[in-house]
Amino acid sequence: MPKPDFGFAFAPNRALDLSAPLLPEVQVVLETEPSIRACMACGQCAAVCTAGAFTPLAFYRLVLQLRGGDVAAVGERARHCMLCGKCQMTCPRGVNIRNAVLLMAALAPPKP
Ligand code: SF4
Ligand code: SF4
Q1: Cα of 84 to ligand 1 centre, how many Å?
Q2: Verdict on whether the full-model pTM lies above 0.85
Q3: Does the C-beta of 82 come closer than 6 Å to ligand 2?
Q4: Nearest ligand, measured from the Cα of 63
Q5: What are the C-alpha distances in Å from 40 to residues 17, 54, 63, 103, 112?
Q6: Would you give per-residue pLDDT tens digits along the chain (112 residues)?
Q7: How far is CA 26 from CA 29, 38, 41, 80, in A?
Q8: Whole-angstrom Cα distance, residue 73 to residue 53?
Q9: pLDDT tens for residues 64-81?
Q10: How many other β-carbons are positioned within 10 Å of the β-carbon of residue 77?
Q11: Residue of 49, 97, 101, 54 lying closest to 75 (CA atoms)
């Protein structure tokens, strides 16, 4: 029996399994900069980020991607950060964002 066409499709499930084991490189980042765990994904950092207006950089998304194990994408996006520190001044959780971004940028695969 053919499936009915409703004119829309369901988006794939992108929920994070927070009980899943973390990749070793992700564990190193979280242990080196433990304040990352305090991020509540409020988006304040992305709202003030100048680099984020022109690139795919949004720190809170990097944190979620990191938890999901997408380390190559995290590294690539983190490299757009200018280390200006505006995000850090607005973060209500006191996340050391610049240090976190530096650690994340180190996850990017080496350029050929
Ligand atoms: S402002 Fe702080 S708590 Fe909010 S999303 Fe950014 S890092 Fe996370
Ligand atoms: S330090 Fe990086 S992430 Fe934070 S506002 Fe500046 S460019 Fe954006």
Answers
A1: 15
A2: yes
A3: yes
A4: 1
A5: 16, 24, 10, 19, 36
A6: 787 888 888 888 888 888 889 999 999 999 999 999 999 999 999 999 999 999 999 999 999 999 999 999 999 999 999 999 999 999 999 999 999 999 999 999 887 7
A7: 5, 15, 18, 19
A8: 18
A9: 999 999 999 999 999 999
A10: 24
A11: 101
Reference 37, options 18, 17, 50; nearest CA is 18
Burial of residue 16 (number of CB atoms within 10 Å: 0-12, 13-18, 19+): exposed
C-alpha torsion sign, points 107, 56, 69, 89: positive
Ligand 2: distance of its center to the CA of 4 in Å? 46
